[in-house]
Design a protein that fits this description.
The protein is mainly α. About 45% of the residues lie in helices and about 10% in strands.
């Protein structure tokens, strides 16, 4: 049986569609296996450092959030005037800070 040119074109288009589908499925599989799009790492780090510890930032501009003299992250004027997030109350105390 000999296929007409129209049948050959139709077959070629179907094969291209199949190849595209395979490529897309492979890409999606790679993304899932690599963890791309996963919030697991982000949420883990957010839950670990959850204690606000005032007075332990090392130098100007290194606080996580507002202090008495400023209302924006990283705008503290000198060491110890903002707060940083730490994992535990003990870690804050060990560093010489005050839990707020």
């Amino acid at each position: 049986m000999v296929a007409t040119k129209e049948e050959q074109k139709e077959f070629a288009m179907k094969m291209k569609d199949i190849a595209k589908g395979i490529a897309i499925a492979g890409t999606v599989g790679l993304l899932f296996s690599s963890g791309c799009g996963s919030d697991s790492d982000t949420s883990k780090s957010q839950t670990q450092a959850s204690v606000k510890c005032q007075g332990i930032n090392s130098c100007k501009g290194t606080s996580d959030c507002a202090g008495a003299a400023n209302d924006c992250k990283g705008l503290n004027g000198c060491a110890g005037t903002g707060y940083l997030l730490v994992e535990t109350d003990k870690e804050c105390a060990d560093k010489g800070g005050k839990v707020i």
